[in-house]
Specification:
Low-confidence stretches: 145-152, 460-474, 476-485
Structural class: alpha/beta
Number of helices: 18
Distance between the termini: 30 Å
Strand content: 5-15%
Radius of gyration: 28 Å
Number of strands: 8
Mean pLDDT: 86
Shape: globular
């Protein structure tokens, strides 16, 4: 059940927040500005529809749910630490719409997981789109003298010619998992299977407990794990032995289940994942290869896939891959988000069509790297009069003008790299700490949203502050204009 509270959706003034010792909040603080800039009440409509029931305990207000996730991403804190930070910081409590400063926690840390499940990646991108519609350009894109083309780019018309610039690029947000090694994954699988065997023996005890040789298997695993020089012969020998232990344990569990005993729900997902892991590892061992389709790199997070990025620091990352587009205003949008290692050029046409749906026209130029410059994408740009960055097909041109244009395009394309850098360093996309598939996607989408929030100019809602000194008594006047679009 959800009960919209109009009183809490209305932003209180700085004087309304009851603080101890008569302290006053700074009106130019970034959280104060953001509290007035976000149209909480208008974004709450779809959130209310998630609670069709009219009975039960009322759910946490939308502003509290979204606000806590924004604070967590911006400050890169854990669930427990973000609640502690809110307890100690009056600016964050003001941002969440609390009526007075309180040392008590507004919610429990475990509730934040429910917020991430409820506010999905698709929903957060709708919130992102709504905020971008009412916001201005970023500071880096503020024109000194607004030209006719810039004015036309801000207006929507189906008859206007191509205007503006679109930048498209992909990156990966790695999840917090141990670096996957074949013998280490098999050892972890063996230990989990042994726990399942112990469960059957302890609760049912249908026959004598089967031998698992766990001490010998553990000793053989540590002999390689602690070895300074791991030769290929040693690695293959250890993998072969671990495969034998895993196979034996799987057969024991099959005997239990054929006798009518069932695994508890907490073990079923692990059992199915380990079965698939065993098949993959056996295939790679027999064929002497290190690649297999939908390779499992984490037993606890089997949806993760290796993403080959070719970077010097980390050529392979394990997480979700996503494409981000940035328009001429500096607004970033999530074009695709997936755990599979897809080819970036396949989303180019869809990204350009979505650009036209938003503005009524295609961009005048699109800045992309080499992987997007396929013949199909080049032909699409040619048919729609879009200039694609990069050299043309064929022999290199000797025209100095085209060389300067390529240099300028490469310089302008750095904007998307700056966005990725800010998103990962400042807003939590550099290492995803969530453990569930849906919360991992939601966490990445939240990073994109928060990066936009602190980059764009939210001029739709503003605060005026006046101060004067009469007869040695300081008087302050605030004019708050709320929910102005």
């Amino acid at each position: 059940m959800y009960i919209p509270e109009k009183r809490k959706n209305r932003q209180i003034t700085l004087f309304d927040l009851n603080q101890s010792c008569g302290m006053e909040l700074d009106p130019i603080n970034e959280w104060i500005k953001l509290a007035h800039a976000i149209p909480w009440s208008k974004m709450e409509a779809k959130y209310v529809a998630m609670f069709p029931s009219k009975t039960g305990r009322p759910a946490t207000p939308f502003r509290m749910a979204l606000g806590v996730l924004i604070i967590q991403k911006r400050k890169k804190l854990s669930d427990r630490d973000v609640i502690k930070e809110i307890q100690e910081n009056p600016y964050l409590q003001y941002f969440l719409g609390m009526e007075k400063f309180s040392h008590q926690a507004p919610i429990k840390p475990s509730v934040i997981v429910s917020f991430r499940k409820r506010l999905t990646a698709d929903y957060l991108m709708e919130v992102n789109e709504y905020i971008l519609e009412i916001s201005g350009v970023t500071k880096e894109h503020e024109p000194k003298n607004e030209s006719k083309n810039a004015k036309a780019a801000n207006t929507r018309s189906d008859d206007i010619e191509n205007l503006g610039t679109a930048i498209l690029d992909a990156t990966c947000s790695p999840s917090n998992i141990r670096y996957p090694q074949d013998f280490s994954l098999l050892n972890e699988a063996r230990e989990k299977l042994e726990d399942m065997i112990d469960y059957f023996h302890k609760n049912y005890h249908p026959w004598d407990k089967p031998r698992t040789y766990r001490r010998i298997a553990r000793k053989e695993y540590l002999a390689l794990a602690k070895s300074k020089k791991r030769t290929e012969k040693k690695i293959r020998a250890t993998i072969r032995k671990q495969l034998g232990y895993v196979k034996r344990d799987l057969e024991y569990l099959e005997d239990y289940m054929e006798a009518g005993y069932a695994l508890p729900s907490k073990h079923i997902d692990y059992y199915l994942t380990i079965q698939k892991l065993y098949e993959q590892q056996k295939y790679m061992y027999e064929n002497k290869t290190h690649s297999v389709e939908d390779r499992i790199v984490s037993i606890s997070q089997p949806y993760l896939r290796p993403i080959v990025r070719g970077k010097a620091k980390s050529p392979v990352e394990f997480g979700a891959k996503y494409d981000v587009s940035i328009d001429e205003k500096g607004h970033a949008r999530l074009e695709k988000l997936s755990f599979d290692a897809y080819n970036e050029n396949t989303i180019f046409v869809d990204a350009m069509n979505r650009y036209k749906e938003r503005t009524g026209h295609y961009p005048k130029r699109v800045l992309v790297d080499q992987i997007y410059r396929t013949r199909d994408n080049r032909n699409f740009c040619k048919d729609h009069n879009i200039t694609m960055s990069g050299p043309k097909l064929g022999r290199p041109s000797k025209d100095k003008k085209s060389t300067k244009e390529e240099y300028q395009d490469n310089t302008d394309r750095i904007e998307v790299e700056r966005f990725f850098s800010t998103e990962k360093r400042c807003n939590g996309a550099g290492l995803i700490m969530t453990k569930l598939e849906e919360t991992t996607l939601s966490s990445i989408a939240m990073s994109v949203l928060v990066t936009n929030l602190f980059a764009v100019d939210l001029t739709g809602i503003f605060l005026l502050f006046f101060s004067d000194n009469i007869s040695s008594e300081k008087t302050e006047h605030y004019i708050i204009i709320d929910d102005v679009v």
